[in-house]
Design brief:
Elements (H helix, E strand, L loop, with lengths): L2 E5 L3 H13 L3 E5 L2 H11 L3 E5 L7 H9 L6 E5 L4 H10 L3 E4 L4 H14 L11 E3 L3 E4 L4 E4 L2 E3 L3 H11 L6 E2 H9 L7 H15 L9 E4 L3 E4 L2
Parallel strand pairs: 1-2, 1-3, 3-4, 4-5
Antiparallel strand pairs: 6-7, 7-8, 8-9, 10-12, 11-12
């Protein structure tokens, strides 16, 4: 059974989430504040975390940082905050996805399924485990990126996006395909997610992020990795 930790201080929303998740055979724990969330996460070892940013005792970004200190569990932020800098702060802290309130339960469940899928091991073909460029190396088996002499810290979502691109070098991967594979949605209005994450990957991997050499945008269509 997949265990979900819901971190939310709105009792009505918690109740709706618990009912919908349990109806789909998820195990659910709920925490009304950040302190309880960190304690429950350590005790219950959830498979995915749904996290509100506006908690009564601490900011949700601090909860993300606390979790990222010891676990790579997928974290989906649920928040009424719509400013792009708020979203980037949560993503930079280690969140895997950002869902703006109000949201549809169907979309949330699709994103949740996608987050759980990303954590499942995918067997790799022999000889396809190492991708080397002049500036960085991707070890697909170890799920590790190295630039120079330093490991590059990637969130699970950043890793999944990069993995799809580097395993099909030179091939255009459409926005729709990436959205469906990484987030469980394919609507064109979600392309801002791709822009945010591709910008983060370029910042971490490219020598000149403004003029990328490896992670190429095909305007209006998708992205391509050039090795």
């Amino acid at each position: 059974m997949t265990r979900v930790l819901v971190v939310e201080d709105d009792p009505q929303l918690v109740r709706a989430l618990v009912i919908n998740l349990q109806a789909r055979q998820y195990g659910v724990d709920a925490a009304p504040d950040g302190t309880t969330a960190l304690r429950l996460a350590a005790a219950r070892q959830p498979d995915v975390v749904l996290l509100d940013l506006g908690l009564p005792d601490m900011d949700g970004v601090d909860v993300i940082k606390g979790l990222r200190g010891w676990t790579g569990v997928p974290i989906l932020v649920l928040s009424a905050r719509q400013a792009s800098d708020e979203k980037v702060a949560a993503l930079d802290a280690g969140a895997d996805d950002y869902i703006t309130k109000p949201f549809s339960m169907d979309e949330l469940l699709a994103r949740l399924r996608a987050a759980v899928r990303r954590t499942e091991a995918v067997p790799l073909a022999p000889g396809a485990t190492l991708v080397e460029t002049a500036d960085f190396t991707i070890d697909l088996l170890a799920k590790k990126a190295v630039r120079g002499d330093h490991d590059v810290r990637l969130t699970p979502t950043e890793w999944h996006l990069l993995e799809i691109l580097v395993t099909s070098p030179g091939r255009l991967i459409t926005q729709k395909h990436l959205l469906r594979e990484v987030w469980g949605v394919s609507q064109s209005n979600k392309t801002n997610y791709l822009r945010v994450y591709m910008a983060q990957l370029r910042r971490k991997l490219e020598t000149d992020p403004a003029h990328p050499r490896y992670l190429i945008t095909e305007p209006g269509m998708g992205y391509r990795f050039e090795g």
